[in-house]
User: Fold this.
Amino acid sequence: MIEPTAEQVEQLTRAFERFTRRFKVAEAAAAADNALNALDAQTLLFVSEHPGCGLGDVARDLGVAATTMSSAVDRLVRKAMIERRRPEDNRRTIALTATAKGRQVVEDQKAGYQNACLAMLRSLDPGERGELIRLTEKIADTES
Assistant:
């Protein structure tokens, strides 16, 4: 395979900076209403999508230390967005679950992402939309 040129790498870097800025703005808007930093927002999203998960599960998925994750969970518990529970079948572990308030915050965050995606897709013709989605999925599925 032929390696990408330095110019192509630079062009893609600039494009992704603009591209991701839209998502950061959407995430920040949803998080600002609830005073969430980026780690807390991603933690809440993971817990919402994986009810009953453990602190270690979240830390591994987000690639952070357990102590860092513990602090994020503590903040979300204080804000009543996550609950800690001890499962009946294993009282030594802690299971994390998003509360109704936490699930609403996640829904607001997802709506922001969807609005950002809608705006991007509207700027393309139908054929380009399918190609963007196909290429984005290919990149997302590539392990580095």
